[in-house]
Amino acid sequence: MPETSVVPEDVADGSQNAESSRERGGGIQSIERAFSILTQISQQDDGINLADLSKAVGLHTSTTFHLVRTMVELGVVRQAKDTKRYHLGRMIFSLAASSSREVDLIATATPYLESLAQGSGEGSHFAMLSGDDVVIVARGAGTGAFQMVERAGGVRPAHCTGIGKVLLAGMDDARFEAWLGGTTLKALTAKSITDPEKLRLEIEQVRKTGVGYDDAEYDDEVRCVACPVRDFSGQVVGAVGVSGPIWRMTLQRMESITHSVRQTAVHLSKDLGYSRD
């Protein structure tokens, strides 16, 4: 008779879990069980063995073993060679550190954004890369009428926004070319750059000047200027920008706003430990 573990596991989990198991897909149940395992491991200062872990999460030993073995392979759990006890893996701490770093960065950037918005009268924003996406992670509200609303969490196209061009310019050549090869340069306005070679030249210019512009390339009625923010290692970790309506953001006025954005990026970069020396 072939071995089956579905029925015993459902019994071990209790009748309520058995009913929810039938209602949900196996993939969702596996995720719930994995998080249950992580929670139990995180509560044990000296780690936990397989038998105790199985009992704590209410699963058969074989089921727990297969789940935790996969988690070990992924790096979210580690098993001590001498005691065979399970502990949280390096990836968990890496993810937590990364998240904490982003939160700290946003908290550091916000006062600068508010000051920049007050000084320029236009909406300010701070953007970071999430994979290949340009995400607005913080903003400052301008004081002028008809503000460009940059919602925190909003995603912007990289090739036709000032902040996006700055973040592209912060990539090394290999990563930029990989991004370019996997991206469709869509025309959102008549001024949007859709030619890869033209974008390469634009990004090279941004690298030289340290400023990225959007001259009605994302929105027909909006101009934007942005500058890079660097951390202690010199890597571009974000972009500070200011956006406003073209009838107020004249090319002449953008010169003074560019200076303010550049200074804001410089001060924020210094707070993150960056120094040109």
Automatic annotation (TrEMBL):
This is Helix-turn-helix domain-containing protein. InterPro entries: GAF-like_dom_sf, HTH_MetabolicPath_Reg, Tscrpt_reg_IclR_C, Tscrpt_reg_IclR_N, WH-like_DNA-bd_sf, WH_DNA-bd_sf. It comes from Ponticoccus alexandrii. PANTHER family: HELIX-TURN-HELIX TRANSCRIPTIONAL REGULATOR, ICLR FAMILY, HTH-TYPE TRANSCRIPTIONAL REPRESSOR ALLR. Residues 1-26 are annotated as: Disordered. The keyword Transcription applies. It holds the Pfam family HTH_IclR. The lineage of its organism: Bacteria, Pseudomonadati, Pseudomonadota, Alphaproteobacteria, Rhodobacterales. Keywords: DNA-binding, Plasmid, Transcription, Transcription regulation. Residues 28-90 form the HTH iclR-type domain. Residues 91-274 form the IclR-ED domain. SUPFAM superfamilies: GAF domain-like, Winged helix' DNA-binding domain.
